[in-house]
C-alpha cells in the first residue's frame, strides 16, 4: 500500500510526525511510506530509513500540488494537520482513503474523519498523530524506538576537533525563531551559561541558527573573554541533528531544535509557556521521557523570577551528575 503522510509545517511539528511514519512502515514493511513536507524538512525526511519517498511542498497552487501527489499513486493518506489547500489537493488527486482530524472546514475533503479535540490536550501532539493511524489499521502497534533518529559520529568528532573539545558538551540555544510561547532573555541564558562554565569537567557551547547573527554578536559581547564556544549552525538540519546527538545536555526553549535534540537522543532542559496549549503535556518530544526536563515559565514577574532560580538549582544538580 502507498501511504501518504502530510505534515508540511515547521521542524518541530514534522518531528512529531516521525513516530507515525515509523509505525506505518513497520506495521507492514511492504507499505510504501511517502511524506509531504516543507523545504526545511526535506533532508531530514530523506535521512529516515522508514520513509520511502519525499514530496516537497514548495507552496505551489492547488492543482500543481495535486499533480505532484497524483504521480505518487497514493492508496491512502493521513493528514496530521490539515488546511483547505492540502485537503482539496488530495481530493483532486483522487486518493481513495483520506484520513484527517475532524476539525476546521478542511475536514470536508476527507472521507475518514477522526474526532480528537486536540485543544483539550489529553495527550501530546505526537500521540494524537499516532492515534490517526488506527483509522487505517485498527491493529497497528504504536510503539517506536527511543531515540528514533541515529547518526554516525563523524560530524560530532569533526566539531570536537575544530574546537579542541575533549570533555562532555553542554549546549545552550537561546534563539527560537518566534515558534515558542516562552523563553528566557539572552542575559538570563548567559547567567545559566556562567553556571555551566564554572565546571571544569565539561565544555560549554552556545548554538545559533543561520539567521541569528545579531543574537550571536550580542552573546559574544556579553560573554567577553570566556571559554564558552559560540557555534553558528551550518549545513543542513541533518548535520545539526548529528551534532546534537553528541551533546550530553541541550538547554533551550520549546522549539524545533529541542525536538531535534531529543529525537537524536540528547538529554534536554526545555522551557514552555505557562498554558495548557503551550505546555510540555502537549509538546513533549518523542525522545525518552526520563531524559526530558520541562519547566513552564509563568507570565507574572514574581513567578518568572522564582522559576528562574529553580532552573539554576536544577541545572547545577544536573551538571554534577553529568560531569
Overall number of strands: 12
Task: Write down the overall mean pLDDT.
Answer: 94
Separation of the first and last Cα atoms: 49 Å
| Rg estimate, integer Å | 21 Å
CATH topology of the largest domain: Rossmann fold
CATH class of the largest domain: Alpha Beta
Percent of residues in β-strands: 15-25%
* SSE series: EHHEHEHEHEEHHEHEHEHEHEHEH
Shape: globular
Major sheet characteristics? 6 strands, parallel
Strand order of the largest sheet: 3-2-1-4-5-6
CATH architecture assignment of the largest domain: 3-Layer(aba) Sandwich
Give the number of helices.
13
CATH homologous superfamily grouping of the largest domain: Glycogen Phosphorylase B
**Contiguous runs where pLDDT drops below 50 for at least 5 residues:** none
Q: What does this entry look like structurally?
A:
- The protein is of the alpha/beta class and 323 residues long.
- The protein folds into two domains: 2-135, Glycogen Phosphorylase B (Rossmann fold); 154-322, Rossmann fold, CATH 3.40.50.2000.
- Helices cover 37% and strands 19% of the residues.
- It has 13 helices and twelve strands.
- The chain has a six-stranded parallel β-sheet, sandwiched between helices. Strands 9-8-7-10-11-12 form a six-stranded parallel β-sheet, with helices on both faces.
- The chain is globular and about 60 Å long.
- The chain starts with a strand and ends with a helix.
- The mean pLDDT is 94.
